[in-house]
Write a structure and sequence with these properties.
With 170 residues, the protein is α+β, with helices and mostly antiparallel strands. Helices cover 33% and strands 30% of the residues. The chain contains two helices and eleven strands, in the order H-E-E-E-E-E-E-E-E-E-E-E-H. The longest helix is centred in the first third of the chain and has 52 residues. The chain is rod-shaped, with a radius of gyration of 26 Å. The protein starts with a helix and ends with a helix.
Length: 170
Amino acid sequence: MLDFILSIFRYLFLLLLYFFIFQLIKLMLRDLHGFSSRESRYQHEILEKTSENVNFSKEDNNAALLVQSSDDSGIIQGSVFYLNSGKSISIGRGTHNSIVLTDPFSSLDHCRVYEQDGQYRLMDNGSKNGTFLNNVRIDKPILLTDGDIIRIGSVNLQFVRWAYEMEPGN
């Protein structure tokens, strides 16, 4: 009789063990599926946030940031971010930034591009991994010139300034 009861407990234990493993696998698969849909939703929110804060038309703009290369899933190579005269653009992982990056090597408030006295400047906001201008790490605000390459993590942005805006007398 005791052997019979022990056998029943063994089978119940195995049944509970299989049930637990099944539930664990089901939870992991649901989490993986949920992560991919959350990630795509997050990327969509990033694109909406970026398009709200950065003017994508050339009107009233005399400079732009052109995405040269990017491993960042939120920033597409070839995208253009026009700079509005008199306004600054913040770049970083935080959703409050004008250009939102998902690159793990970017900081929440990584850097800022702003206009001062008709010239655009780049300023690092004390980021951990640094902001690079033409492959040189910057530590103070620096003047941007046409063709400069700004590197933040795996994202390379080229600063483009319209030639007619830089001609004397305009």
